[in-house]
Amino acid sequence: MKYVLVTGGVVSGLGKGVTASSIGLILKACGLRVTSIKIDPYLNTDAGTMSPFEHGEVFVLDDGGEVDLDLGNYERFLDIKLTRDNNITTGKIYQSVIDKERRGDYLGKTVQVVPHITDAIQEWIERVAAIPVDGKEGPADVCVIELGGTIGDIESMPFIEALGQFSYRVGAGNFCLVHVSLVPVLNVVGEQKTKPTQHSVRGLRSQGLMPNILACRSTTELEEQVKDKLSQFCHVPFENIITLYDVSNIWHVPLLLRDQKAHEAILKVLDLKGVACEPALGEWTARAKFCDKLHEPVRIAMVGKYTGLSDSYLSVLKALLHASVACRRKLYIDWVPASDLEIATAQENPDAYRSAWSLLKGADGVLVPGGFGDRGVEGKILAAKYARENRKPYLGICLGMQTAVIEFARSVLGMQDANSTEFNAHTRNPCVIFMPEGSKTHMGGTMRLGSRRTYFQVKDCKSAKLYGNRSFVDERHRHRYEVNPEMVPLLEDAGLCFTGKDETGRRMEIVELPQHPYFIGVQFHPEFKSRPGKPSAVFLGLIAAASGQLDAWLKKGTAKPYAVSNGIPAIKPHINGTPTKLVNGPLDGIYYNGNGLHV
Ligand code: GLN
User: Fold this and answer.
1) Pocket of ligand 1 (CB under 6 A)
2) Which of 2, 366, 512, 554 is deepest in the core (most CB within 10 A)?
3) pTM higher than 0.70, yes or no?
């Protein structure tokens, strides 16, 4: 096993995760099998209890692991399935050491950070790196390890110490350190400044780690003399200094690495030159370029709670993007803070109310993502009502499905106080209830989590067709509440159709309105399994419906994703007119419009 460690310096938010995923992708393109590990030096055991508003979304794995969103980047870029142990946290390491201490494994010894914690970190890495994640047997060839945070953080010290020992232990030719740093350009003189990088490399060296490759984030390509200076001061060969300058969408990052021969530098350090082939990135390159050329818009209203931080819904946005590329549309996201749709806002802040409703009405499709807590729930119910009554394409995910069911019970069955017991414990019409197996006392890891099977109940429904007429589908879950099975007959008699259920038939997984152009709610989170060339079926359905292509997709029988080998399709002329006030957000390739997004 060979290891590539990716560290970050100067500031956080440099795109270390995307860089590490891109390194993995390019190595995979060279014919190697790649796995990855993300180290998060915080004390939480996992990301499950962390606020998406602070940390971005909680990504869910097949095995139910609730992990950092970077693992989503790895899964999407490398098309692999990771396990919960591929995300290491300080909490997990300490817990394992303390458990051992209680069992008596260290009997008689003083348990210390060095060597006990540092040993536990190294053992964890070696054990997890060997788990196959690409569906093949046996361990991968290379494991990309990303160390979260920046060099100098107090919390990452034990990890750096452990990784220093580890590099020594696995030996030269088996370990390559890529340090991602920032080269700022001072506006006044337009000069690329190397000092911050020099300082962070010095920090790295002082802790016993020597970088083999420098990946420098900068607005433009690094000048020759700047690279010379970095090479000299940081003791890194000139050809191992790579610039990651700003690109139009993140799919270009692996191409930047390839164009600057980063793979050759890494393969040389890892002694793999004889084994690897030239990177095969044909399809990837075509998709990155194709995405830049899209111009006919599709506008999706995202009715959520955390509209201030796009990372809170990262996988949903990626899934929308994958589907939009498949439908040859340029994706515009209209952020609609759910609570702004509520009647209370009409009095408190009429401008916000008007703007939220005009964004919702102007969109081609509506997406209500998952969520917890009662803020904005009434707004989400109103969004579902608007989409249902106005035949606007709607996709509700998890809470977005539950609110659609509540809305239907209120409006169509006339149950005015219909609700989820999550929001009103005393409702007379509980159409969404707490699941019997949940825990009311412990929050961490106690939801219905991970991959579960959904069986289609009828063949002739949109979801089954979009999923390629399979009899079942495995998708990832993260919820405590579910549709009340006692109320299902009533809801079905009134026209709501539960087209997907679990193996017992008592748990509702997919709901549809057959007479509506596209109205689907899913209890699971399909966004976690969407991939750049393989968009998620129900997202594809939403974008296809929102851009007038759904019938064509459904007629194809199976929803065949955009494939480059079929030739790049001609782009139709633009008809709808572009929205105003466009902001090119941090997720390149997606355009945002509307309230509250920090860019
Ligand atoms: N709060 C709801 C539940 O626990 C929905 C969860 C979600 O959207 N992920 O069931």
Assistant:
1) 370-372, 398-399, 422, 478-481
2) 366
3) yes
